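OP here, attaching both records as promised.
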Amino acid sequence: MKLFAQQAWIQGQWAQQVLLEIDSTGHWTQITPNITTPPADAQHKSTIVPGITNAHSHAFQRAMSALTERGSPEGDNFWRWRQTMYQIALSITPDDLREIATQLYRELLDGGYSHVCEFHYVHHDPQGRPYADPAEMCWALVQAAQETGIGLTLLPTLYMHRGFGNPGLQEDQRRFAGTPDMILDLQTRIQAYSQKNNLTHRLRAGVAIHSLRAVDPTSIRELTAALPKDTPIHIHIAEQKKEVEDCLAHLGARPVQWLTEHIDIDHNWHLVHATHTTPQEIQALAKTGASVVICPTTEANLGDGVFDLTSALKSNLSWSIGTDSHVNRDVSEELRLLEYSQRLTQHQRNIASNVTGGQQASATVLFERALQGGHAASGLPLGGLAVGQRADWFELDLTQDNFWRIQPEHQLDAWIFSTPSAKLLRNQ
């Protein structure tokens, strides 16, 4: 297959009149700019950009959208939200999950995501008993991905304890229960299915550790020691202040600090949120090669806090973005809020650009870092429009009003920072 794009985003900048060739496995084989006469068999496109990896998703939480937006006289916080989430999780069947994930994955594709990392911990039936096929809920997600065409890194998640120093799960967490051996079995079966069905370029199996509060150190080491080489490992970390306080009380260190000092983490590790971290923790994390997954709209919706993007950029820490609870399902809105949260707390503009030397636009810095971080989080070649990478691309709809009178060199900036009008029905 051949594409000819008037403009394409290649290695952090716009290239003009680009011929892109795709092989039978769906990877780029040749990319040539400045073509004056495109081949007759090429499909013509206007402006294309690479697809982004959504590095953190709980698909079932799409069913919660707008159901938790009422407070109480006693106030509202993450922990109260979590109780509603548990009730939703207890009600979902495999068919429900497949339907919800199919809807979600279509929306993510519409929003500029071509791949999703699914942090999956609803393993058992509503009574907490294993299904006849223990991977029943995993297959629901695989089927949804195959139906929609989105790529999937499936992360069966180890969840063992209700909190620091509190072994065992709460009754309303019963569907989440797992052991290292169970998670390893799920990971092995998913990867075997991918290989058997020639899906290795679109379906990858990794693992997730729910959090330090939900998995003890011995079990973390047992799980990770048995994994095949270069398996993606994801973990929630330092999302809430209470989580940091409890970790200090129980383990004697802050979550990121404890992880970098006691676990041999490397480039396979992806720390979701890392909201409450010190600059020193971020520097230590960057030295390991591990990455962070930032979920700006969910972190805002839950009142988690603001990630320290400045320290991450200064330390050259790899990071990606995720939509987590899916109150938003659009790449541009996630990146926009990431930058705006920095501006609101630092009282300056163009933080991403300034911190990296001011030579690149903020949209360029944000998009490129999210692209390369998502490539790492997925465990697949998703590094953009480059030879050998999976051929994931989107065409920008230049008829949207956020591109009105925008020169070509500013189209990425307009996509990220100029919100298009909502599509509303007119009152006739």
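Record two, same layout:
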Amino acid sequence: MSLSFRKLDRLKKRILAGCTDRENIHFLHLRKTGGTTLKSVLGSHQVTPKCVLYLHPHRVALKHIPQGHRVMFVTRDPVSRYISGFGSRLRKGAPAHHVPWSADEERAFSRFPDPNSLALALDPAHPAHADAVHAMRTISHLQCSYWDWFGNEKELAARENAILFIGRIESFDADFELLKEPLGLPGELTLPKDSKSTNRSSSDTDRPPPLEPAAVELVKNWYRRDYDFLEICEKWRERHGGPVAK
């Protein structure tokens, strides 16, 4: 049976780590949390003096990571993540990608042209509530929860010692500075700011207006389980005095 390029690359990295005592470290790419930005930096540094890095696509979750290997990931406030995810799919993934809408996404964006209108319709009393729920469950970046990557509280707790780094998009630059030493990255390395590397719109005119206060509360309620996840992550950071495990 022939091995795919991706599987062969993983096998080569594991052999290299085993032969050189480098640590196996996996980046879990949670949707709309700066993963494209981080991968654009780490892509040319997947083998360092200290570790071997695996830069995974969205579909790889904690359960797929071998025992004994370490993981790292970045989080983002769910409201900000919602706005970013809506805009990204509205642009069909541009500027970094081009992923056409599904039939359900086309229906959703024809009904809700901006994130505020969709959020307001999450009110059960809203006449378009059923359409809003369908949109939230079918727009790719909006339908996922952090728990899709981590299972549940018990499963996450069982693998806590595997976690090397929990970054936050809200403090991304500072957190990345603290990540460079344990990964063995060059000290001069910085996160990119260009629109393609960060997968952000390059034009302020393409960005939607802020959510109304009522819309913010409705989005928070929709993602309330994700806030439970963030609380766990914040407590982890407090125990370790920052984003990197001590």
